[in-house]
Amino acid sequence: MEPGGENDEFRTTRSAIPCSCQRTMAVVRSAYHLCRCLTLALAVLLGGCSGPPDRPAATLPDCGWLPNCVNSQTGEGVHASEPIEADDEQWLELKAWIARQQDWEISIDEDDFLQAVVRTPVMRFRDDVQLLFVPERRSIEVRSSSRLGFSDLGTNARRVEVLRGLVAQQPPVSAGDLAAGSR
User: 69-71 and 126-134 as β-strands: parallel, antiparallel, unpaired?
Assistant: First the structure.
């Protein structure tokens, strides 16, 4: 007799598999499809990935469409933030505070501009912060954006408010306060 023929003793049919095994196989197939769907969802959510922004000429870069950025110059809606009121001394004090922070790495430090990469405390995501000091208006334009992910869960807006509090010399803010509620 030839293998694969009708009387092949090694041939298994669905009816020959016990019912409990069929249920187990159905659960495994469902789990497999669920994993595929979750992987796709994760790829979509983390798909908003970007690198560090370039040094702007006079206007900070737009935030784009993802809700993971705030910008005091061009932000609207979820991206909106107010500039930070500051004089020359407050600007220099803020730059010095940022330089002392362990999770902040300054990539550009010029007279009127500072760009830094901030590592979030929990997930260690890299976020970009750009500060543009406008002395004639006594203000600091600010842009804080996440490089990875669809949403920042409010981290960038909180970061801007911490910086605003530092400049206003409201109750002293520590790096731990900046980390509170971060992702």
Answer: unpaired
pLDDT tens string 108-121: 999 999 999 999 88
CA pair distance 27, 44, nearest whole angstrom: 26
Indicate if 25 and 79 belong to the same structural domain: no
pLDDT digits (tens, 9 = 90+) for 42-90: 444 444 445 556 666 678 888 888 888 999 988 777 888 999 999 999 9
**Which residues lie below 8 Å from residue 141, measured CB to CB, with a gap of 6+?**
60, 72, 73, 83, 131, 132, 134
Domain that holds residue 31: 14-45
Q: How far apart are CA 182 and CA 152, in angstroms?
A: 9
**Within-domain flag for 24:** yes
Q: What's the longest Cα–Cα distance across the chain? A: 96
Q: How far apart are CA 94 and CA 173, in angstroms?
A: 12
